[in-house]
Specification:
It contains 13 helices and 19 strands. It has 460 residues and is of the alpha/beta class. The protein has 2 domains: 110 residues, Leucine Aminopeptidase, subunit E, domain 1; 323 residues, Aminopeptidase. The strands form 4 sheets. It has an 8-stranded mixed sheet, sandwiched between helices. Helix 11 links the parallel strand 14 and strand 15. Helix 2 packs parallel to helix 3, helix 3 packs antiparallel against helix 8 and helix 4 runs parallel beside helix 8. Keywords: Aminopeptidase, Hydrolase, Manganese, Protease. InterPro entries: Leucine_aapep/pepB, Macro_dom-like, Peptidase_M17_C, Peptidase_M17_N_1.
């Protein structure tokens, strides 16, 4: 994977312009003739390289349509000829966001496949851009995508622990790891139950990063991530198609770790706890079963109706642990339900919270940085679908409720911290179709929105 720092540079004496051109905009006679000859109309995302007399790239025209969406600049790094470029025709916040988009669009997962050597297109940072902060954001998204793209054989619970350790050490933070049967001793029974069927070297574990915890005057933010490194479905085995991309089921953990690193790099004036439950939902003689009753850290018993609804089980324990810190704000990330995709598709993650101000703040931040979410209801009428005759709650909602993403969020709400505010994001963490700037594979969703929200909220 190419470092993000190779894509954005501070200055270049040879940078050629990428001109942002609205639909129907007037161009100089020579450029207009070239545009007409090549069918360039300024349509959103159109790119046309204008050559010099000897055929070398002189400039590029990039279509903005009726209004320029800076996120479309994600398509530029893989389409522009190699060399240095600068944006022309866009300024201020839009230019800064386009530069970030450029860095995001240059992501390439090349761990297992050699790529032909070729020059890279690089973008000169627009005036006023905080280059370090922008590169940190791009790197956080790249870390998330790389973790999701890495196959489960090379991204197991131990590898998640290793990444968490590197992040903690880099920030001078603490890391506590609870592994295997110690999970029972330390009261993480649901995490243990879900992960105990895996091979010993892939034993389940809870990772807890703590940063600035001695600064009691600062608000405490808790980030919680679902780290199911591979989900077979357990004894309720998934079909082949459903299992194919389950390496991405640790996407929530990747989001929480990357956002945590970003918060610490930025030095936000908060105390921070990052909690990840890292497990493999495997099949063996020791796998938990449909009909089992699990204990949880909170003390609520859980009837297992379906072993493929395992993510909410491990989140129950780590959300409870987050609550023990009495956080002012808790954000959890999980690739939790297929129902979220049915409701909103792969590009628009649902946001669940009962705090209207938090919802408005995160949604507005997402709009500002081109990282959209959509608020979904914690509909009280569906809580009864989680009732069990023989336990405190069931992990699979009754069929009559139908709204699987909503009922999953309602399940998590039972375990969420009761201090401060809580929000749950049911991210997909995946691009199912390839297009310039958005290769098929791992994707970071809601990280930039949440980081902007936190920065706006806590940096006065």
């Amino acid at each position: 994977m190419s470092p993000q720092s190779e894509l954005l540079i501070a200055a270049s004496a040879t940078a050629r312009p990428v001109r942002i051109v609205k639909a129907g905009a007037a161009l100089e006679e020579r450029i207009a003739a070239w545009a007409e000859a090549n069918g360039f109309t300024g349509k959103t995302g159109q790119l046309l390289v204008v050559p010099t007399a000897d055929g070398a790239p002189e400039q590029a025209l990039f279509g903005a349509g009726e209004a320029f969406d800076p996120m479309t600049a994600r398509g530029l790094p893989t389409r522009l000829p190699a060399g240095d470029w600068r944006l022309e025709g866009v300024e201020g916040e839009a230019a800064h966001l386009a530069a970030l988009a450029f860095a995001l669009g240059g992501y390439l997962f090349d761990r297992y496949k050699a790529r032909p050597e070729r020059g890279r297109a690089r973008l000169v940072a627009p005036d006023g851009l905080d280059l370090t902060a922008t590169l940190n954001i791009a790197a956080a998204c790249a870390l998330t995508r790389e973790m999701v793209d890495t196959p489960a054989a090379d991204m197991g619970p131990l590898q998640l622990e290793t990444i968490a350790r590197e992040i903690a050490e880099g920030a001078g933070a603490s890391l506590t790891v609870t592994t295997g049967d110690a999970l029972l001793e330390e009261n993480y029974p649901a995490v243990h139950a879900v992960g105990r069927a895996a091979a010993p070297h892939r034993a389940p574990r809870v990772l807890e990063i703590g940063w600035n915890l001695d600064k009691a005057d600062r608000p405490l933010v808790a980030l919680v991530g679902k780290g199911v490194v591979f989900d077979t479905g357990g004894l309720d085995l998934k079909g082949a198609a459903g299992m194919r991309n389950m390496k991405k089921d640790m996407g929530g953990a990747a989001h929480a770790l990357a956002l945590g690193r970003l918060i610490m790099q930025a030095g936000l004036p908060v105390r921070l706890v990052v909690l990840v439950a890292a497990v493999e939902n495997a099949v063996s003689a020791d796998a938990f079963r449909p009909g089992d009753i699990l204990n949880s850290r909170k003390g609520l018993t859980i009837e297992i109706g379906n072993t493929d609804a395992e993510g909410r089980l491990i989140l129950a324990d780590v959300l409870t642990r987050a609550g023990e810190h009495q956080p002012d704000l808790t954000l959890d990330f999980a690739t939790l339900t297929g129902a979220a995709r049915i409701a909103l598709g792969p590009e628009l993650p649902p946001l669940y919270t009962d705090d209207d101000a938090l919802a408005e703040g995160v949604l507005n931040a997402g709009r500002a940085v081109g990282d959209p979410l959509w608020r979904m209801p914690l509909w009280a009428g569906y809580r009864a679908s989680l009732d069990s005759e023989i336990a405190d709650v069931r992990n699979d909602s009754a069929a009559w409720a139908q709204a699987g993403s909503v009922t999953a969020a309602l399940f998590l709400q039972k375990f969420a911290p009761t201090t401060g505010s809580w929000a749950h994001m049911d991210v997909f963490a995946w691009n199912p179709r390839a297009r310039p700037g958005w290769p098929e594979g791992g994707e970071a969703q809601a990280i930039r929105a949440c980081f902007r929200y936190l920065s706006d909220k806590f940096v006065k």
